[in-house]
Please model this.
Amino acid sequence: VTDRIRTVIFGLGPIGAGIATLAASRPDIDLIGGVDSAPDKAGRSLGDILGVETGNARVLDDASAALGELRPQVVLHATGSYLPDVQDQLIACARAGANVVSTCEELSYPWQRHPDLAKKLDAEARSNGVTLLGTGVNPGFVMDTLAVALSAACQRVERVTLTRVVDVSQRRLQLQRKVGMGLSLDDFRASVGAGRFGHVGLAESCWMLARGLGWTLDSLDETIELVAGEGGLAAGMRQTATGTANGRTVITATVQMSAAAERPRDEIAIDGAPPVRMVLEGGIQGDSATAAIVVNAVPRVLAHEPGLVTMLDLPVVASRGA
Amino acid sequence: VTDRIRTVIFGLGPIGAGIATLAASRPDIDLIGGVDSAPDKAGRSLGDILGVETGNARVLDDASAALGELRPQVVLHATGSYLPDVQDQLIACARAGANVVSTCEELSYPWQRHPDLAKKLDAEARSNGVTLLGTGVNPGFVMDTLAVALSAACQRVERVTLTRVVDVSQRRLQLQRKVGMGLSLDDFRASVGAGRFGHVGLAESCWMLARGLGWTLDSLDETIELVAGEGGLAAGMRQTATGTANGRTVITATVQMSAAAERPRDEIAIDGAPPVRMVLEGGIQGDSATAAIVVNAVPRVLAHEPGLVTMLDLPVVASRGA
Model:
Protein backbone atom coordinates (compact mmCIF):
# COMPACT_ATOMS: atom_id res chain seq x y z
CA VAL A 1 0.00 0.00 0.00
CA THR A 2 1.66 3.22 -1.13
CA ASP A 3 -1.11 5.78 -0.62
CA ARG A 4 -1.03 5.73 3.16
CA ILE A 5 -0.24 9.03 4.82
CA ARG A 6 3.47 9.26 5.60
CA THR A 7 3.46 10.36 9.24
CA VAL A 8 6.09 11.20 11.86
CA ILE A 9 5.53 11.51 15.60
CA PHE A 10 7.39 14.45 17.16
CA GLY A 11 7.66 13.95 20.92
CA LEU A 12 7.30 10.61 22.66
CA GLY A 13 6.19 11.59 26.16
CA PRO A 14 3.00 9.98 27.47
CA ILE A 15 0.70 11.97 25.16
CA GLY A 16 2.96 11.56 22.11
CA ALA A 17 3.31 7.84 22.73
CA GLY A 18 -0.48 7.51 22.94
CA ILE A 19 -0.90 9.40 19.69
CA ALA A 20 1.76 7.30 17.97
CA THR A 21 0.22 4.03 19.18
CA LEU A 22 -3.16 5.04 17.81
CA ALA A 23 -1.65 6.29 14.55
CA ALA A 24 0.19 2.97 14.11
CA SER A 25 -3.16 1.16 14.31
CA ARG A 26 -4.82 3.18 11.55
CA PRO A 27 -4.79 1.59 8.11
CA ASP A 28 -4.59 4.95 6.33
CA ILE A 29 -1.51 6.08 8.27
CA ASP A 30 2.06 4.95 7.69
CA LEU A 31 4.05 5.81 10.81
CA ILE A 32 7.51 6.17 9.33
CA GLY A 33 9.50 7.58 12.22
CA GLY A 34 9.79 9.58 15.40
CA VAL A 35 11.66 12.57 16.78
CA ASP A 36 12.69 12.76 20.42
CA SER A 37 15.95 13.85 21.98
CA ALA A 38 15.53 11.94 25.27
CA PRO A 39 18.53 9.61 25.70
CA ASP A 40 16.26 6.64 26.41
CA LYS A 41 14.47 7.10 23.09
CA ALA A 42 16.75 8.68 20.46
CA GLY A 43 18.31 6.09 18.17
CA ARG A 44 15.91 3.30 19.10
CA SER A 45 13.27 1.52 17.09
CA LEU A 46 9.92 3.34 17.33
CA GLY A 47 8.05 0.04 17.55
CA ASP A 48 10.17 -1.07 20.52
CA ILE A 49 9.38 2.13 22.40
CA LEU A 50 5.65 1.90 21.71
CA GLY A 51 5.32 -1.85 21.96
CA VAL A 52 3.54 -2.04 18.62
CA GLU A 53 4.52 -2.93 15.07
CA THR A 54 5.92 0.02 13.09
CA GLY A 55 8.18 -1.72 10.59
CA ASN A 56 11.68 -0.27 10.57
CA ALA A 57 10.65 3.19 11.83
CA ARG A 58 13.28 4.73 14.08
CA VAL A 59 13.43 7.60 16.55
CA LEU A 60 15.95 10.33 15.80
CA ASP A 61 17.03 13.20 17.99
CA ASP A 62 17.69 15.76 15.26
CA ALA A 63 14.34 17.02 13.99
CA SER A 64 15.59 18.77 10.85
CA ALA A 65 17.69 15.80 9.79
CA ALA A 66 14.84 13.38 10.45
CA LEU A 67 12.26 15.49 8.62
CA GLY A 68 14.58 16.11 5.70
CA GLU A 69 15.27 12.44 5.34
CA LEU A 70 11.76 11.09 5.96
CA ARG A 71 9.78 13.84 4.16
CA PRO A 72 6.51 13.12 6.04
CA GLN A 73 3.19 14.50 4.81
CA VAL A 74 2.08 14.91 8.40
CA VAL A 75 3.84 15.46 11.71
CA LEU A 76 1.93 14.66 14.89
CA HIS A 77 3.52 17.00 17.40
CA ALA A 78 3.39 16.64 21.19
CA THR A 79 6.35 18.28 22.84
CA GLY A 80 5.03 21.20 24.87
CA SER A 81 2.20 23.46 25.94
CA TYR A 82 3.79 26.86 25.34
CA LEU A 83 4.05 28.17 21.80
CA PRO A 84 7.29 30.14 22.18
CA ASP A 85 8.98 26.92 23.37
CA VAL A 86 7.93 24.90 20.33
CA GLN A 87 7.80 27.48 17.54
CA ASP A 88 11.15 26.42 16.09
CA GLN A 89 9.96 22.80 15.92
CA LEU A 90 6.76 23.84 14.12
CA ILE A 91 8.71 25.97 11.66
CA ALA A 92 11.10 23.09 10.99
CA CYS A 93 8.09 20.90 10.15
CA ALA A 94 6.60 23.49 7.84
CA ARG A 95 9.92 24.02 6.05
CA ALA A 96 10.21 20.27 5.55
CA GLY A 97 6.82 20.42 3.78
CA ALA A 98 4.94 18.63 6.55
CA ASN A 99 1.42 19.44 7.72
CA VAL A 100 1.23 19.52 11.52
CA VAL A 101 -1.36 18.48 14.08
CA SER A 102 -0.03 19.55 17.46
CA THR A 103 -1.15 19.18 21.06
CA CYS A 104 0.53 22.48 21.94
CA GLU A 105 -2.24 24.13 23.94
CA GLU A 106 -1.26 27.66 23.00
CA LEU A 107 -1.41 26.74 19.30
CA SER A 108 -5.13 25.88 19.50
CA TYR A 109 -5.97 29.57 19.26
CA PRO A 110 -2.74 31.59 19.20
CA TRP A 111 -4.09 34.81 17.70
CA GLN A 112 -4.77 36.51 21.05
CA ARG A 113 -1.83 35.58 23.29
CA HIS A 114 0.82 35.41 20.57
CA PRO A 115 -0.45 37.48 17.61
CA ASP A 116 2.98 38.08 16.07
CA LEU A 117 3.98 34.46 16.43
CA ALA A 118 0.63 33.37 14.99
CA LYS A 119 1.19 35.61 11.95
CA LYS A 120 4.70 34.24 11.55
CA LEU A 121 3.53 30.61 11.73
CA ASP A 122 0.68 31.32 9.34
CA ALA A 123 3.12 32.86 6.85
CA GLU A 124 5.52 29.90 7.21
CA ALA A 125 2.65 27.47 6.66
CA ARG A 126 1.37 29.29 3.58
CA SER A 127 4.75 29.75 1.98
CA ASN A 128 5.52 26.07 2.46
CA GLY A 129 2.07 24.92 1.34
CA VAL A 130 1.20 23.18 4.61
CA THR A 131 -1.50 23.43 7.26
CA LEU A 132 -0.86 23.82 11.01
CA LEU A 133 -3.47 22.91 13.63
CA GLY A 134 -3.33 22.87 17.42
CA THR A 135 -5.94 20.63 19.01
CA GLY A 136 -6.77 18.20 21.78
CA VAL A 137 -9.61 17.63 24.22
CA ASN A 138 -9.06 20.84 26.07
CA PRO A 139 -8.28 23.22 24.46
CA GLY A 140 -9.48 22.12 21.04
CA PHE A 141 -12.73 20.35 21.64
CA VAL A 142 -14.80 20.09 24.79
CA MET A 143 -14.66 23.71 25.99
CA ASP A 144 -14.59 25.48 22.64
CA THR A 145 -15.37 23.62 19.39
CA LEU A 146 -18.21 21.63 20.95
CA ALA A 147 -19.71 24.75 22.55
CA VAL A 148 -19.60 26.59 19.23
CA ALA A 149 -21.18 23.56 17.52
CA LEU A 150 -24.03 23.50 20.04
CA SER A 151 -24.66 27.20 19.49
CA ALA A 152 -25.88 26.36 15.98
CA ALA A 153 -29.23 25.57 17.60
CA CYS A 154 -29.53 29.04 19.15
CA GLN A 155 -31.18 32.07 17.62
CA ARG A 156 -29.37 34.18 20.19
CA VAL A 157 -26.57 33.43 22.66
CA GLU A 158 -26.29 35.58 25.77
CA ARG A 159 -23.80 33.70 27.87
CA VAL A 160 -21.88 30.43 27.85
CA THR A 161 -20.90 28.55 30.99
CA LEU A 162 -18.36 25.75 30.62
CA THR A 163 -17.56 23.31 33.39
CA ARG A 164 -15.01 20.52 33.28
CA VAL A 165 -14.48 18.35 36.36
CA VAL A 166 -11.70 15.78 36.15
CA ASP A 167 -10.83 13.21 38.81
CA VAL A 168 -7.05 13.01 38.58
CA SER A 169 -6.62 10.31 41.24
CA GLN A 170 -6.08 7.61 38.64
CA ARG A 171 -4.19 9.80 36.18
CA ARG A 172 -0.53 10.34 35.34
CA LEU A 173 1.74 11.60 38.12
CA GLN A 174 2.82 14.40 35.78
CA LEU A 175 -0.80 15.58 35.56
CA GLN A 176 -1.31 15.26 39.32
CA ARG A 177 1.74 17.45 39.89
CA LYS A 178 0.55 19.95 37.30
CA VAL A 179 -2.61 20.57 39.32
CA GLY A 180 -0.84 20.78 42.66
CA MET A 181 -2.05 17.52 44.18
CA GLY A 182 -0.38 17.00 47.57
CA LEU A 183 0.91 20.55 47.97
CA SER A 184 0.44 22.57 51.14
CA LEU A 185 -1.44 25.84 50.83
CA ASP A 186 1.80 27.81 51.00
CA ASP A 187 3.47 25.69 48.34
CA PHE A 188 0.32 25.86 46.20
CA ARG A 189 0.31 29.67 46.42
CA ALA A 190 4.00 29.79 45.62
CA SER A 191 3.46 27.57 42.57
CA VAL A 192 0.61 29.72 41.31
CA GLY A 193 2.71 32.81 41.86
CA ALA A 194 5.66 31.32 39.99
CA GLY A 195 3.50 30.82 36.87
CA ARG A 196 3.35 27.92 34.43
CA PHE A 197 1.04 26.17 36.88
CA GLY A 198 -2.37 24.64 36.34
CA HIS A 199 -4.18 23.95 33.10
CA VAL A 200 -2.76 25.56 29.99
CA GLY A 201 -5.25 26.60 27.36
CA LEU A 202 -8.33 27.71 29.29
CA ALA A 203 -7.92 31.24 27.97
CA GLU A 204 -7.34 29.85 24.47
CA SER A 205 -10.67 27.97 24.72
CA CYS A 206 -12.45 31.16 25.74
CA TRP A 207 -10.89 33.18 22.93
CA MET A 208 -11.74 30.47 20.41
CA LEU A 209 -15.31 30.31 21.66
CA ALA A 210 -15.66 34.07 21.46
CA ARG A 211 -14.26 34.07 17.95
CA GLY A 212 -16.67 31.27 16.96
CA LEU A 213 -19.64 33.24 18.27
CA GLY A 214 -18.49 36.48 16.67
CA TRP A 215 -17.86 38.12 20.03
CA THR A 216 -15.07 40.52 20.96
CA LEU A 217 -14.12 40.14 24.60
CA ASP A 218 -13.31 43.27 26.60
CA SER A 219 -11.45 41.26 29.22
CA LEU A 220 -10.57 37.74 30.22
CA ASP A 221 -9.52 37.11 33.80
CA GLU A 222 -8.19 33.86 35.21
CA THR A 223 -8.02 32.68 38.79
CA ILE A 224 -6.62 29.48 40.28
CA GLU A 225 -7.77 28.24 43.67
CA LEU A 226 -6.82 25.25 45.76
CA VAL A 227 -9.24 22.36 46.12
CA ALA A 228 -8.73 21.07 49.66
CA GLY A 229 -7.97 17.41 50.24
CA GLU A 230 -6.92 15.24 53.15
CA GLY A 231 -4.73 16.70 55.89
CA GLY A 232 -5.07 20.25 54.59
CA LEU A 233 -3.07 19.41 51.48
CA ALA A 234 -4.30 20.23 48.01
CA ALA A 235 -6.37 17.58 46.23
CA GLY A 236 -5.91 19.69 43.13
CA MET A 237 -7.04 22.99 41.71
CA ARG A 238 -9.99 24.84 40.29
CA GLN A 239 -9.22 27.31 37.53
CA THR A 240 -11.76 29.79 36.28
CA ALA A 241 -11.70 32.13 33.33
CA THR A 242 -14.25 34.90 33.08
CA GLY A 243 -14.76 36.78 29.85
CA THR A 244 -16.71 40.00 29.50
CA ALA A 245 -18.13 41.83 26.51
CA ASN A 246 -19.84 45.22 26.64
CA GLY A 247 -19.41 45.17 30.40
CA ARG A 248 -21.30 41.88 30.88
CA THR A 249 -19.93 38.45 31.80
CA VAL A 250 -20.49 36.35 28.68
CA ILE A 251 -18.15 33.40 29.26
CA THR A 252 -17.44 31.54 32.49
CA ALA A 253 -15.14 28.56 32.08
CA THR A 254 -14.15 26.40 35.02
CA VAL A 255 -11.76 23.47 35.08
CA GLN A 256 -11.52 21.51 38.30
CA MET A 257 -8.80 18.88 38.31
CA SER A 258 -8.46 17.13 41.63
CA ALA A 259 -8.43 13.81 43.38
CA ALA A 260 -11.84 12.48 44.45
CA ALA A 261 -13.63 15.13 42.39
CA GLU A 262 -17.38 14.85 42.74
CA ARG A 263 -19.27 13.96 39.57
CA PRO A 264 -16.58 14.21 36.90
CA ARG A 265 -18.21 15.64 33.80
CA ASP A 266 -18.14 18.12 30.98
CA GLU A 267 -20.97 20.58 30.93
CA ILE A 268 -21.90 23.31 28.50
CA ALA A 269 -24.75 25.66 29.34
CA ILE A 270 -25.77 28.20 26.75
CA ASP A 271 -28.11 30.91 27.97
CA GLY A 272 -29.98 32.14 24.97
CA ALA A 273 -32.96 31.39 22.78
CA PRO A 274 -33.49 28.50 22.84
CA PRO A 275 -31.17 27.61 25.73
CA VAL A 276 -28.98 24.50 25.49
CA ARG A 277 -27.80 22.38 28.41
CA MET A 278 -25.30 19.65 27.59
CA VAL A 279 -23.73 17.16 29.95
CA LEU A 280 -21.12 14.53 29.16
CA GLU A 281 -21.48 12.33 32.23
CA GLY A 282 -18.06 11.13 33.44
CA GLY A 283 -16.37 13.68 31.22
CA ILE A 284 -14.19 13.06 28.21
CA GLN A 285 -11.03 11.19 29.17
CA GLY A 286 -8.19 13.60 28.48
CA ASP A 287 -5.25 11.51 27.31
CA SER A 288 -7.06 8.86 25.28
CA ALA A 289 -9.41 11.36 23.67
CA THR A 290 -6.61 13.79 22.89
CA ALA A 291 -4.83 11.06 20.94
CA ALA A 292 -8.12 10.37 19.15
CA ILE A 293 -8.75 13.98 18.20
CA VAL A 294 -5.21 14.50 16.95
CA VAL A 295 -5.27 11.41 14.74
CA ASN A 296 -8.88 11.96 13.64
CA ALA A 297 -8.00 15.50 12.55
CA VAL A 298 -5.35 14.31 10.09
CA PRO A 299 -7.58 13.89 6.99
CA ARG A 300 -9.25 17.28 7.62
CA VAL A 301 -5.87 19.00 7.93
CA LEU A 302 -4.56 17.34 4.77
CA ALA A 303 -7.65 18.46 2.84
CA HIS A 304 -7.49 22.07 4.06
CA GLU A 305 -5.77 24.87 2.24
CA PRO A 306 -2.40 25.97 3.64
CA GLY A 307 -2.11 28.16 6.70
CA LEU A 308 -2.43 28.22 10.47
CA VAL A 309 -5.97 27.01 11.24
CA THR A 310 -8.12 26.30 14.27
CA MET A 311 -10.72 23.59 14.81
CA LEU A 312 -13.36 26.15 13.83
CA ASP A 313 -11.99 26.29 10.29
CA LEU A 314 -12.32 22.55 9.64
CA PRO A 315 -15.36 20.51 8.67
CA VAL A 316 -16.44 18.30 11.57
CA VAL A 317 -13.61 16.04 12.72
CA ALA A 318 -14.85 12.46 12.99
CA SER A 319 -13.64 9.16 14.31
CA ARG A 320 -12.41 7.12 11.39
CA GLY A 321 -11.82 3.92 13.31
CA ALA A 322 -12.76 0.58 11.76
CA VAL B 1 -25.70 49.11 4.00
CA THR B 2 -25.18 47.40 0.67
CA ASP B 3 -23.13 44.34 1.63
CA ARG B 4 -25.91 42.54 3.46
CA ILE B 5 -26.84 39.15 2.06
CA ARG B 6 -29.79 39.44 -0.33
CA THR B 7 -32.12 36.73 0.95
CA VAL B 8 -35.53 35.35 -0.06
CA ILE B 9 -37.78 33.11 2.03
CA PHE B 10 -39.42 30.33 0.01
CA GLY B 11 -42.38 28.89 1.93
CA LEU B 12 -44.19 30.77 4.69
CA GLY B 13 -45.72 27.96 6.72
CA PRO B 14 -44.94 27.88 10.47
CA ILE B 15 -41.31 26.83 9.97
CA GLY B 16 -40.71 29.20 7.07
CA ALA B 17 -42.27 32.10 8.97
CA GLY B 18 -40.00 31.35 11.94
CA ILE B 19 -36.95 31.30 9.70
CA ALA B 20 -37.96 34.53 8.00
CA THR B 21 -38.59 36.29 11.31
CA LEU B 22 -35.14 35.34 12.55
CA ALA B 23 -33.52 36.27 9.23
CA ALA B 24 -35.20 39.69 9.35
CA SER B 25 -33.57 40.32 12.75
CA ARG B 26 -30.03 39.60 11.58
CA PRO B 27 -27.96 42.64 10.65
CA ASP B 28 -26.04 40.76 7.94
CA ILE B 29 -29.18 39.58 6.14
CA ASP B 30 -31.38 41.67 3.87
CA LEU B 31 -34.72 39.89 3.56
CA ILE B 32 -35.86 41.14 0.17
CA GLY B 33 -38.90 38.99 -0.52
CA GLY B 34 -40.87 35.79 -0.14
CA VAL B 35 -42.38 33.07 -2.30
CA ASP B 36 -45.63 31.34 -1.33
CA SER B 37 -48.62 30.46 -3.44
CA ALA B 38 -51.15 30.32 -0.57
CA PRO B 39 -53.98 32.76 -1.36
CA ASP B 40 -53.71 34.35 2.09
CA LYS B 41 -50.04 35.19 1.51
CA ALA B 42 -49.29 35.72 -2.18
CA GLY B 43 -49.29 39.38 -3.16
CA ARG B 44 -49.04 40.68 0.41
CA SER B 45 -46.28 42.54 2.19
CA LEU B 46 -43.81 40.10 3.79
CA GLY B 47 -43.52 42.29 6.87
CA ASP B 48 -47.30 42.27 7.35
CA ILE B 49 -47.38 38.47 7.28
CA LEU B 50 -44.49 38.13 9.71
CA GLY B 51 -45.33 41.06 11.93
CA VAL B 52 -41.81 42.45 11.63
CA GLU B 53 -40.13 45.19 9.64
CA THR B 54 -38.94 44.02 6.20
CA GLY B 55 -39.04 47.27 4.21
CA ASN B 56 -40.98 46.88 0.98
CA ALA B 57 -40.38 43.13 0.63
CA ARG B 58 -43.38 41.35 -0.91
CA VAL B 59 -44.56 37.76 -1.22
CA LEU B 60 -45.04 36.45 -4.75
CA ASP B 61 -46.65 33.21 -5.85
CA ASP B 62 -44.51 32.60 -8.94
CA ALA B 63 -41.08 31.38 -7.81
CA SER B 64 -39.26 31.80 -11.11
CA ALA B 65 -40.58 35.28 -11.66
CA ALA B 66 -39.75 36.29 -8.09
CA LEU B 67 -36.24 34.82 -8.19
CA GLY B 68 -35.55 36.31 -11.61
CA GLU B 69 -36.62 39.73 -10.46
CA LEU B 70 -35.07 39.72 -6.97
CA ARG B 71 -31.82 37.85 -7.80
CA PRO B 72 -31.20 36.73 -4.19
CA GLN B 73 -27.81 35.40 -3.10
CA VAL B 74 -29.54 33.00 -0.73
CA VAL B 75 -32.93 31.33 -0.63
CA LEU B 76 -34.14 29.96 2.70
CA HIS B 77 -36.44 27.15 1.64
CA ALA B 78 -39.13 25.52 3.79
CA THR B 79 -41.89 24.05 1.67
CA GLY B 80 -41.77 20.28 2.18
CA SER B 81 -40.13 17.20 3.61
CA TYR B 82 -39.94 15.02 0.49
CA LEU B 83 -37.27 15.76 -2.10
CA PRO B 84 -39.22 14.68 -5.21
CA ASP B 85 -41.94 17.17 -4.23
CA VAL B 86 -39.56 20.13 -3.97
CA GLN B 87 -36.86 19.34 -6.53
CA ASP B 88 -38.27 21.75 -9.12
CA GLN B 89 -38.24 24.55 -6.56
CA LEU B 90 -34.60 23.84 -5.69
CA ILE B 91 -33.61 23.73 -9.35
CA ALA B 92 -35.39 27.03 -9.96
CA CYS B 93 -33.35 28.56 -7.13
CA ALA B 94 -30.07 27.19 -8.51
CA ARG B 95 -30.85 28.41 -12.02
CA ALA B 96 -31.57 31.87 -10.62
CA GLY B 97 -28.06 31.82 -9.14
CA ALA B 98 -29.21 31.48 -5.53
CA ASN B 99 -27.55 29.40 -2.85
CA VAL B 100 -30.12 27.41 -0.87
CA VAL B 101 -30.49 26.39 2.76
CA SER B 102 -33.53 24.14 2.95
CA THR B 103 -35.45 22.40 5.71
CA CYS B 104 -36.40 19.60 3.30
CA GLU B 105 -35.63 16.57 5.47
CA GLU B 106 -34.75 14.32 2.56
CA LEU B 107 -32.23 16.90 1.28
CA SER B 108 -30.14 16.64 4.47
CA TYR B 109 -28.52 13.47 3.12
CA PRO B 110 -30.13 12.58 -0.23
CA TRP B 111 -27.41 10.30 -1.60
CA GLN B 112 -28.96 7.08 -0.30
CA ARG B 113 -32.71 7.43 -0.83
CA HIS B 114 -32.56 9.55 -4.00
CA PRO B 115 -29.12 8.99 -5.58
CA ASP B 116 -30.12 10.07 -9.09
CA LEU B 117 -31.89 13.14 -7.82
CA ALA B 118 -28.91 13.97 -5.59
CA LYS B 119 -26.59 13.75 -8.61
CA LYS B 120 -28.93 15.93 -10.64
CA LEU B 121 -29.16 18.59 -7.91
CA ASP B 122 -25.39 18.50 -7.40
CA ALA B 123 -24.86 19.03 -11.14
CA GLU B 124 -27.39 21.89 -11.21
CA ALA B 125 -25.68 23.51 -8.23
CA ARG B 126 -22.22 23.22 -9.74
CA SER B 127 -23.18 24.42 -13.18
CA ASN B 128 -24.90 27.44 -11.66
CA GLY B 129 -22.10 28.14 -9.17
CA VAL B 130 -24.27 27.77 -6.08
CA THR B 131 -24.34 25.60 -2.95
CA LEU B 132 -27.37 23.58 -1.76
CA LEU B 133 -27.73 22.43 1.85
CA GLY B 134 -30.53 20.61 3.64
CA THR B 135 -30.50 21.07 7.41
CA GLY B 136 -32.50 21.54 10.58
CA VAL B 137 -32.50 20.12 14.10
CA ASN B 138 -33.43 16.66 13.01
CA PRO B 139 -32.23 15.64 10.49
CA GLY B 140 -29.25 17.98 10.20
CA PHE B 141 -27.96 18.38 13.71
CA VAL B 142 -28.93 16.55 16.86
CA MET B 143 -29.00 12.96 15.57
CA ASP B 144 -26.23 13.18 12.98
CA THR B 145 -23.84 16.15 12.86
CA LEU B 146 -23.56 16.36 16.65
CA ALA B 147 -22.98 12.61 16.97
CA VAL B 148 -20.23 12.75 14.35
CA ALA B 149 -18.70 15.75 16.12
CA LEU B 150 -18.63 13.87 19.44
CA SER B 151 -16.94 10.90 17.79
CA ALA B 152 -13.82 13.04 17.34
CA ALA B 153 -12.96 12.10 20.92
CA CYS B 154 -13.07 8.37 20.17
CA GLN B 155 -10.17 6.22 19.08
CA ARG B 156 -12.69 3.60 18.01
CA VAL B 157 -16.47 3.67 17.61
CA GLU B 158 -18.39 0.41 17.89
CA ARG B 159 -21.97 1.54 18.09
CA VAL B 160 -24.00 4.72 18.32
CA THR B 161 -27.34 4.97 20.10
CA LEU B 162 -29.40 8.09 19.50
CA THR B 163 -32.49 8.96 21.49
CA ARG B 164 -34.74 11.95 21.01
CA VAL B 165 -37.80 12.36 23.21
CA VAL B 166 -40.11 15.26 22.40
CA ASP B 167 -43.19 16.28 24.35
CA VAL B 168 -45.57 17.46 21.64
CA SER B 169 -48.39 18.49 23.98
CA GLN B 170 -47.53 22.18 23.65
CA ARG B 171 -46.50 22.02 20.00
CA ARG B 172 -48.18 22.84 16.70
CA LEU B 173 -51.37 20.94 15.82
CA GLN B 174 -49.74 20.00 12.51
CA LEU B 175 -46.92 18.27 14.40
CA GLN B 176 -49.33 16.56 16.81
CA ARG B 177 -51.24 15.16 13.81
CA LYS B 178 -48.01 14.08 12.15
CA VAL B 179 -47.23 11.83 15.11
CA GLY B 180 -50.72 10.38 15.39
CA MET B 181 -51.79 12.10 18.60
CA GLY B 182 -55.42 11.23 19.36
CA LEU B 183 -55.72 8.37 16.85
CA SER B 184 -57.22 4.98 17.75
CA LEU B 185 -54.97 1.98 17.34
CA ASP B 186 -56.74 1.01 14.11
CA ASP B 187 -56.44 4.50 12.66
CA PHE B 188 -52.80 4.67 13.77
CA ARG B 189 -52.04 1.39 12.00
CA ALA B 190 -53.86 2.56 8.90
CA SER B 191 -51.86 5.80 8.89
CA VAL B 192 -48.56 3.96 9.24
CA GLY B 193 -49.62 1.59 6.47
CA ALA B 194 -50.55 4.47 4.17
CA GLY B 195 -47.04 5.92 4.44
CA ARG B 196 -45.90 9.54 4.79
CA PHE B 197 -46.54 9.21 8.52
CA GLY B 198 -44.27 9.94 11.43
CA HIS B 199 -40.95 11.72 11.47
CA VAL B 200 -39.26 12.25 8.11
CA GLY B 201 -35.50 12.10 8.09
CA LEU B 202 -34.58 9.50 10.69
CA ALA B 203 -33.07 7.30 8.00
CA GLU B 204 -31.28 10.32 6.55
CA SER B 205 -29.72 10.99 9.97
CA CYS B 206 -28.51 7.39 10.16
CA TRP B 207 -27.06 7.45 6.66
CA MET B 208 -25.35 10.77 7.36
CA LEU B 209 -23.93 9.45 10.63
CA ALA B 210 -22.65 6.30 8.91
CA ARG B 211 -21.06 8.40 6.19
CA GLY B 212 -19.44 10.64 8.79
CA LEU B 213 -17.94 7.65 10.59
CA GLY B 214 -16.78 6.00 7.38
CA TRP B 215 -19.23 3.11 7.77
CA THR B 216 -21.15 1.32 5.04
CA LEU B 217 -24.47 0.06 6.35
CA ASP B 218 -25.71 -3.37 5.22
CA SER B 219 -29.27 -2.55 6.17
CA LEU B 220 -31.39 0.13 7.79
CA ASP B 221 -34.80 -0.89 9.13
CA GLU B 222 -37.43 1.45 10.48
CA THR B 223 -40.39 0.71 12.71
CA ILE B 224 -43.13 2.97 14.03
CA GLU B 225 -45.10 2.05 17.12
CA LEU B 226 -47.92 3.74 18.95
CA VAL B 227 -47.29 5.40 22.31
CA ALA B 228 -50.45 4.81 24.31
CA GLY B 229 -52.23 7.75 25.89
CA GLU B 230 -55.51 8.35 27.65
CA GLY B 231 -58.58 6.32 26.73
CA GLY B 232 -56.61 3.93 24.56
CA LEU B 233 -55.90 6.64 22.00
CA ALA B 234 -52.39 7.39 20.76
CA ALA B 235 -50.39 9.99 22.68
CA GLY B 236 -47.97 9.90 19.79
CA MET B 237 -45.43 7.59 18.24
CA ARG B 238 -42.05 6.04 18.73
CA GLN B 239 -40.00 5.53 15.59
CA THR B 240 -36.83 3.48 15.56
CA ALA B 241 -34.20 3.00 12.89
CA THR B 242 -31.68 0.20 13.23
CA GLY B 243 -28.60 0.09 11.07
CA THR B 244 -26.29 -2.87 10.70
CA ALA B 245 -22.79 -3.26 9.32
CA ASN B 246 -20.96 -6.56 8.94
CA GLY B 247 -23.94 -8.29 10.52
CA ARG B 248 -23.83 -6.21 13.71
CA THR B 249 -26.19 -3.49 14.91
CA VAL B 250 -24.11 -0.30 14.80
CA ILE B 251 -26.75 2.43 14.88
CA THR B 252 -29.97 2.55 16.89
CA ALA B 253 -31.89 5.78 16.52
CA THR B 254 -35.17 6.37 18.32
CA VAL B 255 -37.47 9.36 18.10
CA GLN B 256 -40.39 9.46 20.48
CA MET B 257 -42.80 12.29 19.86
CA SER B 258 -45.82 12.18 22.11
CA ALA B 259 -47.90 14.09 24.61
CA ALA B 260 -46.74 13.84 28.22
CA ALA B 261 -43.45 12.25 27.19
CA GLU B 262 -41.31 11.44 30.17
CA ARG B 263 -37.99 13.30 30.39
CA PRO B 264 -37.78 15.05 27.03
CA ARG B 265 -34.17 15.01 25.95
CA ASP B 266 -31.60 14.34 23.28
CA GLU B 267 -29.13 11.64 24.07
CA ILE B 268 -26.13 10.34 22.19
CA ALA B 269 -24.29 7.28 23.47
CA ILE B 270 -21.15 6.21 21.66
CA ASP B 271 -19.86 2.77 22.58
CA GLY B 272 -16.18 2.79 21.83
CA ALA B 273 -12.84 3.79 23.25
CA PRO B 274 -13.22 6.04 25.09
CA PRO B 275 -17.03 5.92 25.31
CA VAL B 276 -19.03 9.15 25.17
CA ARG B 277 -22.40 9.78 26.83
CA MET B 278 -24.10 13.04 25.99
CA VAL B 279 -27.42 14.34 27.25
CA LEU B 280 -29.19 17.53 26.30
CA GLU B 281 -31.68 17.78 29.16
CA GLY B 282 -35.07 18.99 27.91
CA GLY B 283 -34.00 18.36 24.35
CA ILE B 284 -33.43 20.88 21.60
CA GLN B 285 -36.62 22.72 20.75
CA GLY B 286 -37.43 21.72 17.18
CA ASP B 287 -39.04 24.73 15.53
CA SER B 288 -37.02 27.52 17.13
CA ALA B 289 -33.72 25.67 16.78
CA THR B 290 -34.43 24.69 13.18
CA ALA B 291 -34.87 28.36 12.31
CA ALA B 292 -31.58 29.04 14.13
CA ILE B 293 -29.62 26.36 12.31
CA VAL B 294 -30.95 27.38 8.90
CA VAL B 295 -30.06 31.05 9.39
CA ASN B 296 -26.76 30.27 11.16
CA ALA B 297 -25.72 28.06 8.23
CA VAL B 298 -25.99 30.92 5.71
CA PRO B 299 -22.41 32.26 5.99
CA ARG B 300 -20.96 28.73 5.81
CA VAL B 301 -23.00 27.93 2.69
CA LEU B 302 -22.00 31.20 1.03
CA ALA B 303 -18.31 30.49 1.72
CA HIS B 304 -18.43 26.91 0.42
CA GLU B 305 -17.61 25.89 -3.10
CA PRO B 306 -20.57 25.06 -5.38
CA GLY B 307 -22.42 21.78 -5.14
CA LEU B 308 -24.89 19.79 -3.08
CA VAL B 309 -23.40 19.58 0.42
CA THR B 310 -24.31 18.17 3.81
CA MET B 311 -23.64 19.55 7.28
CA LEU B 312 -20.59 17.28 7.42
CA ASP B 313 -18.93 19.24 4.62
CA LEU B 314 -19.14 22.60 6.39
CA PRO B 315 -16.92 24.06 9.10
CA VAL B 316 -18.81 24.21 12.38
CA VAL B 317 -22.03 26.21 12.06
CA ALA B 318 -22.25 28.77 14.87
CA SER B 319 -24.76 31.15 16.29
CA ARG B 320 -23.98 34.60 14.98
CA GLY B 321 -26.55 36.44 17.06
CA ALA B 322 -25.67 39.76 18.62
About this structure: Chain A touches chain B through 51 residues (CB under 8 Å).
